[in-house]
Design brief:
2 domains; Aminopeptidase; alpha+beta; about 35% strand; 7-stranded mixed beta sheet; 8 helices
Amino acid sequence: MPTTRAAVRLRQIKEADLPAVAELLSEGFPTRSRTYWLRGLHRMAVRPRSEQHPTYGYLLESGGLPVGAILLLFSDVLSASGVIVRCNVSSWYVRPEFRIFASLLITSTTKDKDVTYFNISAVPHTWSTVEAQGFSVYCKGQMYAFAFLRRPVKSVQIEVFDPATTSLDVTDREILNQHAAVGCLSIVVHCKGECYPFVFQKHYVKGLVPIYRLTYCRDVNEFMRFAGNLGRFLLSRGSVWIQLDANGALPGLIGWYTQKRGRKYAKGPHTPRLGDLSFTETAFFDS
């Protein structure tokens, strides 16, 4: 077992490392297969991103072998103040005999002051560790809504996204197109001559019960406005539930709110907004 920092090297993950990294992560996350990780890693390589940031993330290497890894999904987000850079810190694991170097893996890879780093999958037993790394809570929990029970807005049409026929702006078109390509459900709500983009990701609770997770909308208020319409649209696709991030129960939505899961953390200059999990592990790994 190495006992000095010099015994372990930190470097960027390269394409040639992907099979070994997938093997390492399937060891650290035994409910996820090697195929699951390889598929997600290959999707990371083709996603839109800034060339100045790592494609995959970083690994800890000892004796020429990876002993730890952290995945970093960088993306550029257009805001009112211009383009901001954010990074979804995902799926980090260090083998037990090298855990002394785990803090090095985190602190050395999330130190750019111009980047907003966020963790959207921290499980309860890691919350104190994440907070000790300088992250703060920006989302306390999740709402599970029977949105189809809400009164729908009249004169609304919903269609599955088609880049050839919608009149969205370039940014929203790219978001919907990229997420549709990895298996998400990208849809457009049409109301009174305006278009409203949404992305949902379908998954299964306990592997059995289908549920749609809200992955992207421009504003949660837009989701609330069309919740009844969206709920009926998704009901026709096999799910009575919509899952979305929230900091409390959302008025007007029938369902339940919980803080037992869904807590999300961030550090950096721009706190992520609720309703936007675009270009994160939610889309690129779980779809």
